[in-house]
């Protein structure tokens, strides 16, 4: 794959007038408040992993609508004092998998909550355990067009709210410092992390890698690769739904959440990425913290990579960055 998007010099200054609904803040404040009204805290059950230096709990917490959402919480076995925590969100189609697959951050001294993604976990890996009990009208296979005619019904309204409630949940765990909680994720997980950073104003840090769910219009214009191609294929059939669909997606665009973020942001982008095109990432990165002042942001660029981005090479620099902010 060759570089197909804007040159790097243009990407670095690429900004977009965000197509944002007037009631964006009201919509999301009401959504989060409604979810929190269901109350409830995380339920933890220790898992026998055979590990001696890491302890893992099977976590269930109330998400959107009070629906139970699963996760793994891994921590150092012999920790003293409240731990900083990282909430991690998963890539498209993936599930929380098996507990021993998530040891790196716990080994580095963090409480690490991996949130299962509702309705996903069957596209590969070791599976997921969280159903989505909410139905959908006609949709193209995948998740982007589920509930696309009304933002109140859209799938990602539920997922982003689950992400907020995951932060709420880890902050209630004994032995976790609620003031030192960061969010991270790759691809879809990066998009969820961006949304959560825009909805939880007191997060100190967010680290989205090659994020999905950003600048949908641009993505559809320059790439027909799935998952953004789900939007194109749906609208190629339901031609009369274009205005309603784009209105719904305007409530879910990472650019709008990024503007409201107050956390320090560490992004990554790959210049050959035709799944999450570089301009969609940069539009969001360049909007990061725009509604506030003094918000720190930085981005790591992988000129010769596609959607895999930095993969394992991200771990060490991200650890150093987390250590600075948590």
From TrEMBL:
Superkingdom: Bacteria
Acetyl xylan esterase domain mapped to chain residues: 1-324
Leader sequence segment: none
Record-linked PANTHER family: CEPHALOSPORIN-C DEACETYLASE
Entry protein name: Acetylxylan esterase
Source organism: Myceligenerans indicum
């Amino acid at each position: 794959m060759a570089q197909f998007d804007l040159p790097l010099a243009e990407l670095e200054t690429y900004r977009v007038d965000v197509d944002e609904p007037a009631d964006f803040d009201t919509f999301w404040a009401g959504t989060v408040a409604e979810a929190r009204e269901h109350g409830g805290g995380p339920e933890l059950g220790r898992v026998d992993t055979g590990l001696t230096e890491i302890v893992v709990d099977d976590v269930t917490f109330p998400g959107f609508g009070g629906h139970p959402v699963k996760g793994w919480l891994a921590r150092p076995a012999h920790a003293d004092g409240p731990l900083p925590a990282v909430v991690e969100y998963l890539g498209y189609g993936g599930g929380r998998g098996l507990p021993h697959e998530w040891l790196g951050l716990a080994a580095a001294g963090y409480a690490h909550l991996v949130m299962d993604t509702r309705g996903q976990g069957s596209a590969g890996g070791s599976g997921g355990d969280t159903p989505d009990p909410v139905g959908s009208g006609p949709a193209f296979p995948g998740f982007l067009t589920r509930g696309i005619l009304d933002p109140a019904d859209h799938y990602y309204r539920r997922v982003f709210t689950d992400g907020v409630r995951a932060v709420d949940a880890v902050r209630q765990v004994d032995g976790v410092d609620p003031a030192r909680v960061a969010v991270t994720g790759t691809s879809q997980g990066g998009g969820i992390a961006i949304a959560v950073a825009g909805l939880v104003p007191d997060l100190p840090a967010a680290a989205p890698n090659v994020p999905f769910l950003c600048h949908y219009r641009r993505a559809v214009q320059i790439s027909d690769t799935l998952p953004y191609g789900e939007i194109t294929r749906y609208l190629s059939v339901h031609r009369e739904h274009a205005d309603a669909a784009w209105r719904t997606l305007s409530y879910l665009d990472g650019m709008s959440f990024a503007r409201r973020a107050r956390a320090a942001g560490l992004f990554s982008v790959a210049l050959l990425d035709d799944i999450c095109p570089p301009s969609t990432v940069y539009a969001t990165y360049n909007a990061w913290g725009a509604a506030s002042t003094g918000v720190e942001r930085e981005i790591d660029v992988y000129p010769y990579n596609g959607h895999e981005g930095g993969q394992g090479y991200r771990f060490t620099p991200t650890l150093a960055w987390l250590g600075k902010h948590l």
